[in-house]
Specification:
The chain is of the alpha/beta class. The protein contains 14 helices and 8 strands. The chain has one domain (about 35-285): TIM Barrel, CATH 3.20.20. The chain has helices at about 5-10, 15-20, 25-30, 40-50, 70-90, 110-125, 140-150, 165-175, 200-215, 215-220, 230-245, 260-270, 285-295, 300-305, and strands spanning about 55-60, 95, 130, 155-160, 180-185, 225-230, 250-255, 275-280. Bound molecules: dihydroflavine-adenine dinucleotide (FDA).
Length: about 300
Amino acid sequence: MSLMRRALLAASTNAWLRDHVTKWGFVRRSVTRFMPGERIEDALAAAKEQQKLGINTILTRLGENLTRGDEFEEVTQHYLEVIDRVAEAGLDAHISIKPTQLGLDLDRALCERNIDRLVERAEQKGNFVWIDMEGSPYVDPTLELYKRSRAKSDRVGIALQAYLYRTPQDVESLIPLGPAIRVVKGAYLEAPNIAYPKKSDVDDAFYKLSTRLLSPDAQKTGTLLHIATHDIPLADRLLAYIKQNDVPNAAYEFAMLYGIQRNQQLRLAREGIGLRVLISYGEYWFPWYMRRLAERPANVWFVIRTLWS
Ligand code: FDA
């Protein structure tokens, strides 16, 4: 892992930087490349624009590691409202939540109830709830939350991180449930004894996990795969596998982040390949933004250039 990437990931958890850097105008300007605005209205307007291009969306309000009961309730109420507003607007826009936004750090039972409320509303309104995967200490509780929800509804999915050595076993434990799994490379700073440090190993793991989830016996259980990457060679390798093996369209979708690899997004849409773009919004964007910079340190120069724009 490069020094720059390590420094940016360390910065993502620094409270002083979060409180100060988010007030600097040039940083705020640079963030707009990756998020259409801080308000849900900005995200809904962007989702509408994407839908015109044949691209569906996933909405997520930034924020993590909340600590107070009133904050969890506020986030849950917010997402309930988002599900209603998506239905009213006739959008095909899922929601994506972080368990630590809904109470996981403080009260597991409360977090379960909040997820239940969202999944029930998603059932009523024809929506779908994705559970993000956070840092490695959260993997076990997040898997338990998912398995519990999946036993009640098929309108819930989970993100799994290809960089973790444990993920192939987690995939095997989920396949019998007919899961919806978003495979991602993994965005947190993890130790080499639990996660592959080398990009080539992570890419390889991503490919193997994805092909396992597209395999005929995973398909028999109703498994859905979200291939969440901006890595074009990797996406092309998986598209070749899909073609060679006649994988049905209903078995997978690609998922990418708003504003990243736009040409690839338009290419997939043009070719009629299922794609969802994840749109982030909200005021608490600092740690999330640092992780996006860490994914491509060249973005740091982009931020610096906006000093003069
Ligand atoms: P990689 O980082 O290898 O990038 C491939 C290429 O894409 C780069 O060379 C660059 O050209 C371009 N690129 C990638 N990131 C860029 C950026 N920020 N700016 C500009 N160009 C960029 N992680 C997690 O731990 N838990 C989660 O729940 C989720 N959820 C999630 C949902 C969705 C829909 C996506 C797309 C991603 C996530 N992630 C995530 C993040 C994920 O783990 C990973 O950090 C990023 O997707 C970057 O990895 P790539 O697969 O894009 O490849």
